[in-house]
Amino acid sequence: MADKYHRLVSFLINICPEPLRELFLQNAKSDTKPGVPYTSLDAYLASRKQDILSLKSRRKLRDDQYDLLYPNSGPADESQWDITLLAVLILELFRTNIQNQIQFHIRDIRDVRNSLQHESSTSSISDTKFQQNWDRLEIATLALAKVVNGTNYENVMKGKIETANVSNMPDLANTLTIWFMEMKTQMMAEMKGKMEEILKDTKETKRKSNESVNILQNAHMVKPGPSGKPNKRMKIVDKALKKMQDYFERTLNTEIPEDFNAPVETDRIKQKLQDNHLVIVAGQNNSLYVAAALTAVKDMGYNEKRCVEMQNFSDWNHVDPEDVEFVLCCNPFGREAYDAEKAKGMADIFSSIQHTVKEDRDDKNLAVLMTSDIGVLNECKKRYYHDILEEVVTVYHSTSETQPADLTVARCNKNVVPSTSTISQNLADQTCLFLDHHKRQVHPDIMKAAKDKFKVHKSVVLVGPPRCGKTSLAVALAASYQPSQVLLLTYPEQVQHVDQNRTDLVMIEDFAGKYGFNKIQICDWYKTFEILHVMKSAGKLNIILTCDKQKFKKCTEKIAAHPLLEHTVELKRKNVPVKQEIHTNVSQAQTVTVDTVSNQHHYTPPIILAGRVL
C-alpha cells in the first residue's frame, strides 16, 4: 500500500477530531464549575476565559489556537478545532471528570499525530509501522466514541474507519491541504515565539553593553591541550544541542498532569540522581512513570537551560558536560514495542554514558535519566547486558478502590521455562497438529464478525453448543499467524511455557471442560487469566478461547466475570434434515445449518456447512 502516509493523515483529519469534539461538548454541558447552566458554546467559553488565559500564559495554548476560541468576529466554530487544541482543552479543563484510560487514549492520538508530523520519509512508511499507528488510532477512537454516545456511535465510527482503510480517498487534496496548513501554522507560531525570545535577549544585551567583556570571556572554554596544559578555544554554536534543549522544555511542560500526585518512587529516583547521576525509570501503560520521572527532575533543581532530551542515540555526540548538566532519554529501546535498531545504538554508548556520569568535574557532573516501558526494558536486558541497566526504579500504577495496582506486570516478563525445553517443543508440535487437523472452510460472514471483534479487542471468546464450529472458527482466525507463533493451551499450568519472543497468539480450547463442568480446573484457569490479561494489555499477546454456551453462562454467573471473557462471539447450530442417502461402502452424509450471532445480537443469515459422519 503506497498511500499509507495519506491514509493515516485522513484518519487524523477526518475521523479522530469527531469523537473528541463530542467529548468536549458533553463535558462542557455538564460542567458545574462556571456556576451557570450551559446555554451556548460562546457563553461557556466566556465563563472559562480565565482558565483558558492561564493555559495561554503557560504556553499550553498558542495564539492562533486562542483566536479560534475567541474570534474577532462571529461565534466560535468547534468544527475548526484540530486534535491538538481539543486534547489540550479536554485534558486541562475536565481532567478530574475524564477517566485515566480515556486520558491515555487522547494522548495516544496526539502522539501518533505528532510522530506523523515529524515523519522524514512520507513515501516509505513500513507496513508494520502503518499497522501499529492505525491500530492505535482505531482503538483510541472507538473507545472515545463508546464513552461519548455508547455502542451505536461506536459502530458508526467503526464503519467510517473501515471505509477509510479501503476507500479511494476522493477528498485527499482537501485533507492534505488542512494537514499541511496545520503544520505550517504550528511552525509559524513556534518561530514567532523564538523570534520574541531573540528580540528580548537582544534588547537585554544592548542594555547591558558594559558586560560585553564578560560575555566574550564566557565564550571561551578551557580544554587540555596536547601538552596537558589548558588551552582556550571558542565555543561553537551547536544547532542540534539547541533543538535538544527545546525538546526537553516541551516534554517537561506537557507530560506532567496539572493535578499529578507524585508516587513514593519519586524519592528513590531523586536519590539515584544525587548519588549515581544515573537512573532508568520503568513502568507500564498508564502508570505515569514519565510524569514521576520529570517531577523528580524538577525537584532536583537543574538549570533548565542546561537540560537536553535525546531523541536518538546519535544525539549523545552533542552532549558536553561543559554545556549540559542533565540528559533525558525517553523510550531509548522502543516506545511500545522493542526496537532492535534503537536498542543496539544505545547499547553501543552505554559505556560512554557510564564513564561520563562518573567522571569528577568539580561540581559539574552530568546526570542521565532514561524512561522505558518495563517490558521493552526487559527485552533489551536479554540482548545487551550492562551494569547501566541495573539502575532501575519501577513506578507502579497508583492504587484506588476502582483502579487497583496491577502487580502482575513483572510476572509476564520472566521466562519460567526456556523456550527450547522438551515440553515447550512438544506443545508447539501439538499445536501444529491441532491447527492442521481442524482446518475447515468458514463462511465469510462468520469470519468477518469474529475477525472484526478480535482485531479491536485482541481477545475473543467463541461461545456455542457442541459441533457449532467454534474450533474451526478459532483455527481460521489463527491462520493469519505463522504456526510457530501460535500455542495451544489445554491446561492452566502450561501458561509458563508461553515465550513472548516466539508466541503471538494463545488458543485455549474448552476452558470450562469439554466433557463436564470442572469447577476446580476453571478456577485454576481464572488464575491464569490474570497473567494472560496483563500480557494482552501490554500488547505482547493475542488470545482466542472457546467454550460451551451453557458452561460459559455458568462460569460468569456462578464463579466470576473476568476482563478476558468480556468480548464474545456466539455461534448457533440448528440441525435440519435435508436428505439421507445410503451408498455401498460409503459413509452416511449429513448436512447441518449454522447461524452466528454476535454479542450485539445482530442476525446473520443461516449458512450451510457440509460434514461427514462415520
What layout of secondary structure does this protein have?
Elements: H1 4-15, H2 17-29, H3 41-47, H4 49-57, H5 63-69, H6 83-93, H7 100-117, H8 127-166, H9 172-207, H10 212-218, E1 220-224, E2 230-234, H11 239-254, H12 265-275, E3 278-283, H13 289-300, E4 307-310, E5 326-330, H14 340-348, H15 350-358, E6 367-373, H16 374-383, E7 392-394, H17 422-437, H18 444-457, E8 459-464, H19 470-478, E9 486-489, E10 505-508, H20 519-537, E11 542-548, H21 549-558, E12 568-574, E13 589-598, E14 607-612
Parallel strand pairs: 3-6, 3-7, 4-5, 5-6, 8-11, 8-12, 9-10, 10-11
Antiparallel strand pairs: 1-2, 12-13, 13-14
Helix pairs in contact: 1-8, 1-9, 2-6, 2-8, 6-7, 7-8, 12-13
Estimate what percentage of residues fall within beta strands: 5-15%
Round the mean pLDDT to the nearest integer and report it.
78
Strand count: 14
**What is the number of helices?**
21
Portion of residues within helices = 40-55%
CATH topology of the largest domain: Rossmann fold
The largest β sheet comes out as: 7 strands, mixed
Structural class: alpha/beta
Number of domains: 3
Oligomer: single chain
CATH architectural label of the largest domain: 3-Layer(aba) Sandwich
Estimate the global geometry from the Cα principal axes: globular
Using the CA coordinates, give the radius of gyration: 29 Å
Determine the N-to-C terminus distance: 47 Å
Describe the structure.
- The chain has 614 residues and is α/β, with parallel strands linked by helices.
- The protein folds into 3 domains: 4-183, no CATH class; 239-407, Rossmann fold, CATH 3.40.50.300; 422-612, Rossmann fold (3-Layer(aba) Sandwich), CATH 3.40.50.
- The protein has 21 helices and 14 strands.
- The protein has helices at 4-15, 17-29, 41-47, 49-57, 63-69, 83-93, 100-117, 127-166, 172-207, 212-218, 239-254, 265-275, 289-300, 340-348, 350-358, 374-383, 422-437, 444-457, 470-478, 519-537, 549-558; strands at residues 220-224, 230-234, 278-283, 307-310, 326-330, 367-373, 392-394, 459-464, 486-489, 505-508, 542-548, 568-574, 589-598, 607-612.
- The strands form 3 sheets. It has a 7-stranded mixed beta sheet, sandwiched between helices. It has a 5-stranded parallel beta sheet with strand order 4-5-6-3-7.
- A hairpin with an 8-residue loop joins β13 (589-598) and β14.
- α7 (100-117) packs across α8 (127-166).
- The protein is globular, with a radius of gyration of 29 Å.
- The two termini are 47 Å apart.
